[in-house]
Design goal:
It is a single chain. The protein has 14 helices and 15 strands. It is an alpha/beta fold. It folds into three domains: 76 residues, Winged helix-like DNA-binding domain superfamily/Winged helix DNA-binding domain (Arc Repressor Mutant, subunit A); 130 residues, 2-Layer Sandwich (Nucleotidyltransferase, domain 5); 161 residues, Nucleotidyltransferase, domain 5 (2-Layer Sandwich).
């Protein structure tokens, strides 16, 4: 049985600082040799050897094979012991997803459900708690094996106080100033963080791609438009955790009325709700109420649906071009059901964004689908809570 790694990671004492820094380095760079560790870790070699031995004896790191020799014995490479601790990553949006991950952010199992008019905060939180317990039980873990819980949610959020503040895309009542972290900590007394899902997804994609210094813009489209931006590895969070504000970029001054009360917002043209309304305006007998129905109509090549979807892609591409002009990303990653299931929609968004980007290097900016798909939000939430253990190094 491993010594509990969570006690080690939660310990912010000065005495524990160097050991945590070493563990963090091995986690991010492993498999890595002692000699390579010494290049970026300023301790005497004897101290490093002692610290490595301690981490290994506790079951937190292990040998990960041998490196290339440089005239003598091949060096031992070290990496983290991935099953020494576990993380929970949660996405709270129109689909709620709960993931169990090992300490290397590999997904071990998942639970999910779609939010309906019946899913008040009380009902939703109760289901999430039950799902976490089921995942722990299925994998024969104890509560002590969980080192943290991360939540990627629809904004706006009060991140400091762990609250969801009236998410505009939710259709059940009661989602106003919901203390979700407090409710979860009643059952799971571990560190829990919350951030907007677009920010956590951007972090997950950044981690997966192992970028070094690139600026990454991540955009999720669906019932609303949410975006996250990472600059040189650091997430640029909005103060209120409202990454949904990107959906209120003006793309048609004086245009369609938006749910926010203003006219011409991106949401009024490129959200699912806007598409449903436009299709009904043009063909009153054709009423779509879900993304599944929209995708099915596209599959059946219903002409008016194709027209409206491509029109929405045009406005979405314009908005992304505006974001590119302001933020200067190196990579733009797109996620959402239409991005995943309609090549015509994806290609239209990319072509419009590229054509309207004002930059001498706009043709060099990579615009593509995200690598992690819809798992990115929950995975990124787990990554963020794990990284929070090292923020005081």
């Amino acid at each position: 049985m491993y010594t509990l790694i969570r006690d080690f990671l939660w310990d912010d004492s000065k005495k524990n600082k160097n050991k945590k820094s070493l563990y963090h380095l091995i986690h991010s760079k492993g498999p890595i040799s002692k000699s390579d560790v010494l290049k970026s870790f300023s301790v005497p070699q004897t101290t490093l050897t002692r610290m490595v031995a301690e981490l290994e004896s506790n079951g937190w790191i292990r040998s990960g094979g041998f490196g290339q020799p440089s005239g003598g014995r091949p060096p031992i490479l070290y990496k983290v012991q991935k099953d020494s601790g576990f993380l929970i990553g949660i996405e709270i949006a129109r689909v709620v997803q709960v993931l169990l991950l090992d300490i290397e952010f590999n997904i071990l199992n998942r639970k999910m459900f779609s939010v309906t008019t019946e899913h008040t905060p009380e009902v939703t939180i109760s289901i999430i708690i039950d799902m976490i317990k089921q995942l722990i039980q299925t994998h024969q873990l104890s509560a002590n094996d969980i080192i943290g819980i991360g939540i990627g949610a629809v904004g706006p959020l009060d991140r400091k106080n762990g609250r969801m503040i009236n998410p505009e895309s939710f259709i059940a009542p009661g989602w106003d100033n919901v203390p979700i972290i407090n409710e979860l900590q009643k059952e799971f007394p571990v560190p829990i963080i919350i951030n907007n899902g677009a920010n956590t997804a951007a972090l997950a994609e950044y981690q997966a791609q192992l970028f070094s210094s690139e600026n990454l813009l991540y955009c999720i489209s669906g019932y609303g438009i949410r975006c996250g931006f990472i600059h040189a590895g650091i997430s640029l969070n909005s103060r209120q955790g409202d990454a949904s504000s990107y959906g209120h970029i003006i793309v048609e001054p004086g245009g369609r009325l938006c749910s926010c009360g203003k006219r011409g917002c991106l949401n009024a043209y490129s959200s699912f709700g806007a598409m449903f309304e436009q299709i009904k305006r043009e063909v009153p007998s054709l009423e779509l109420t879900s993304s599944s129905q929209l995708v099915e109509a596209l599959t059946q090549k219903v002409q008016i649906v194709e027209k409206v979807v491509l029109e929405s892609a045009y406005y979405y591409g314009l908005a992304i071009a505006n974001m590119m002009n302001l933020l200067h990303p190196d990579v733009v990653l797109l996620q959402g059901r239409l991005i995943e299931e309609s090549g015509a929609y994806l290609n239209k968004v990319i072509s419009i964004a590229t054509d309207h980007a004002y930059s001498s290097r706009s043709q060099d900016i990579i615009i593509r689908k995200g690598q992690l798909g819809r798992d990115a939000v929950a995975v990124g939430a787990a990554v963020e809570v794990f990284q929070s253990f090292f923020s005081k190094e």
